[in-house]
Structure formats: structure tokens, C-alpha cells
Amino acid sequence: MTNYRAGQPAIMSALAVATLFLVGCGAATGPTSNPISPAPATSSTADAAKKEPSPNVAACARFAKENASLASYLADGKGALTVEDWRIAQKNQVKALDDAALGATGRVAERMDAAVELIPAVPLEMVQPSGWRTGEAYNLALTRITSACEADGAPVNFREVTLPPEIFRK
Fold first, then answer.
1. What's 34's DSSP letter?
2. Which of 30, 84, 103, 156 could be 64's S-S partner, Cβ–Cβ 3.0 to 4.6 Å?
3. What is the pLDDT of residue 46?
4. What is the largest CA-CA distance in the chain?
């Protein structure tokens, strides 16, 4: 019969040394010692804020789109629409401008709200000889929105409402 117990202490000693060696290797310190730990933060809060777009970026783009539609209705006429549908379309565009302003914040929101408030109940009046001053004020408001959007990192171009020629202005 073979006595396996006689060699057992040598095997146990070898296992203990190997285990200590492996455990010792696992206790190393340094940047690669724990692959689960998060990498050290290298960017500041200001850098993170710069990477996230302002909510005004989307609001400025939407306002420009809705304004272009309104300006088109006013300059191009009713097209294939009935007169009643054309009036409804103009009012819907004013509502869309107001909705776009609701998505803005700060100075951009204030300037968008001011522009929407300038639009008369019948938007077509802004391009008629008797309402050109309102149209001019609205175009000036668009210029102010442009500068606020640009300051917030959202450059936009607005289509101004077409004013009647000076000879027809009352």
C-alpha cells in the first residue's frame, strides 16, 4: 500500500507558497491594479456644461422654421388655400411660434415672447400699408432674437416679413 500522507506536507507547503505568491501579485498597486475602478475625472463641470447643448439650440431652430412659414404665408399669399384656410394657417403659425418660445430659456425666451406679442390678431396686417410699423417692429425683434440665439451657441437666420414699399406706407 502506498502512503500518500507522507508526501502531503510537501504538497501543502508548495500550495501555500503558490497561493501567497498569487495573492501577493493581486495586491499590486498602480493604475492597472483594479480594472473595475473608474478612471480619474479629468474634465471639470464647466467642460461638461460646454458639451451639453443649450435647450435654446432647438428652440431657436424651431422658431426660425416656424417664422419662415409665417413669412411665407404673408409674402406669397394664399396659394391654393381658400381665404379662410389661409387665415387659419397664419394663426396656426403664430401658435407654433409661441410653442417654440415655450421651449426657450432666459434672454432667448424673453425675446421670442416679445416678438410673438407684436404679431397682430390678423398677421397679414404687418405687411399691409397701414400695419408696416408693426412689421418693422417684428423684424427688429427677430434681429434681437438672432443675437440672443447666437450668444447661446445657436446661430440662426430669420426670414423677415416683407414690408410694403415706402411709397405705400401710411
1. -
2. 156
3. 53
4. 125
